[in-house]
Design a protein that fits this description.
Number of helices: 12
Radius of gyration: 19 Å
Helix content: 40-55%
Length: 271
């Protein structure tokens, strides 16, 4: 993925994708590792935690210690129950457009309090913000953002859900890792999402700053590529002329889905 982020044009992207290959055995291994990562997250402690239940117990303990105790002391919460309500409502909206006013109303709190709580999550690297892309900076700041957890295992622990293999968890894992790679890459490009007035959306959009071509990302948990999965990517790539579209799915093989659009297994991107 890092090579794609640094590509100068669509031909270079195509060349990188064409040359990338994983033997069947390594592909299966990567997929198994990614499945574990999507279930339990990536805290280093898991090297010592061998069984699923042991990992769940550790995440539960970490959640209670870090989020429910240390965080409260750090921010000196006057009303811990209000933060409990915020957390419960916030995690259910992860990966969706975050309407602050609606969240405040559901929690029975002020919008300023909600913004402050979200700020704590961001400062402590619990959650990160994906901003909507707009060429007008003022409009970009006014539009609703999305939020994701830095660790999907912690998100599952807060939700008490280690059984559901839903698309929302898959999207959280994939986009968070893309965002981390961008950070390791010097922050020269930023991850946004894009949504038009007619509802056409790209889960991820990497700007073409510094002369790099725009990359559009669509995240789908399906193992096989379906034509309907790339319909939004086709619209973005066509309009961008030089853009590249990546359908990041749960498949086992790289596949060219259309002109300048590839279906790429999530487990391969982070190999």
């Amino acid at each position: 993925l890092e090579q794609l982020l640094n590509a100068d044009d669509s031909r270079e992207c195509a060349s990188i994708l064409a040359e990338f290959y994983l033997p069947a055995r390594e592909s299966v291994y990567c997929k198994d590792i990614f499945r574990e990562f999507n279930l339990f997250g990536g805290y280093p402690e898991f090297i010592r935690r061998k069984g699923p239940q042991d990992r769940k117990d550790w995440l539960s303990s970490y959640h209670q210690t870090y989020l429910e105790t240390d965080l409260r002391q750090l921010v000196e919460l006057r009303n811990p129950e209000s933060f409990d309500m915020f957390e419960k409502m916030f995690v259910q909206r992860v990966g969706n457009l975050m309407n602050i006013s609606e969240l405040a109303r559901d929690c029975g709190l002020s919008a300023d309090t909600i913004r402050r709580f979200i700020g704590y999550y961001r400062q402590l690297f619990i959650a990160w913000q994906a901003k909507p892309y707009h060429t007008n900076l003022g409009k970009r700041m006014m539009k609703m953002s999305k939020y994701y957890f830095y660790d999907t295992g912690l998100l599952r622990s807060v939700l008490s859900d280690f059984s559901t293999m839903s698309g929302s968890f898959f999207e959280n894992t994939v986009l968070t890792e893309v965002n981390k790679i961008l950070g390791f890459n010097g922050g020269r490009r930023e991850l946004y999402f894009s949504r038009t007035a007619t509802g056409v959306e790209a889960d991820g959009f990497l700007t073409s700053d510094n002369g790099k071509i725009p990359l559009f990302l669509e995240v789908k948990q399906a193992e096989k590529m379906r034509r309907q999965d790339i319909k939004h990517l086709k619209k973005y790539v066509t309009e961008a002329e030089s853009g590249i579209g990546l359908l990041i799915n749960n498949g086992s093989a790289l596949e060219q889905a259309d002109d300048r659009i590839w279906a790429v297994p999530a487990s391969w991107l982070f190999y």
